[in-house]
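batch job 7 of whatever, protein = Tripartite tricarboxylate transporter substrate binding protein
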Amino acid sequence: MFNKLFGTAAAALAVAMALAPLNASADAAFPDRPIRFIVPFTAGGITDNVARTVGARAAELLGQPIIIENRAGAGGNIGAEYAANSKPDGYTIFLGTQGTQVTNPLIYKTASKPEKALVAVQGLTAIPNILVVNESRPYNTLDKLVAYARANPSKLNTSSAGAGTGTHLAAELFQSVAGVKFSHIPFKGSAPSITALIGGQVDISFDYPVSTEPFIKDGKIRALAVTGEARLPSFPDVPTLAELGYPGASSVSWMGIFVPADTPAPVNAKLEKAFAQAIADPQISSRLIAFGGVPLKKSGADFAAFVKEESVKWGNVVKEANVQLD
């Protein structure tokens, strides 16, 4: 009996040892065929544009095509779950966002847990929100807005691109820090949200630069503050929330590269290097700035730590605001 068991174990060990050089060789040859890049939102949006812009440069550096696959639905959950269940060989990568990796698992009761099944590889971009108000409203500075909101709890309406989106949660974070209360009006996307703001159906909004910039420059809405850590190059005169006394309300929506858990470390390292070099390319970084963001230069363990910090931060916001979707 012992000899039989010993023989079986020895055979298994021999197979493993024989396969090890093959696996190492496969990792060394990576990539030797096209890579699928799963984007959890529809084509034409900001996430898709970022993926295509950075992916094209990374493909040149890796020497293989990177093919975009848009798998939209359920706030990004469908694409995240698909990527998490893909083979962990580096040939399926995922455009993870603040939503898919952090806030969705907090606010969707039935969401999968991609933060456990997907590994952070490389940050791509961080996009702040802009606090904008209807041009006709009397609170044309942040101080006046806060004073009005404190004197009139829940009277101000803040629009968003949808419940649980970054445009909603940025407003919830600000309310918590500033000690004010708004009434939330969710819309199906940024376009109808900003249209309502221009039309005066709502008072304020925390939306993205790509959605608000044309209307700010046309004088249809007024920008009071930027939620990011630095002023935007396109609006150098608009201060940050931190500059105005609310550093705790600073926030960004971010995107990065994730892969299925158990993807070999040497493969992750090659992907990390290629995408880090891609966002460092002046032409690519200028495109990211044009999209309203800045390159998110966080790699590997640093990027994973950043995601963990974001989970704690937004977990507190979601709990306090009682944001739940199904």
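notes: Residues 127 and 142 are 21 Å apart (CA to CA).
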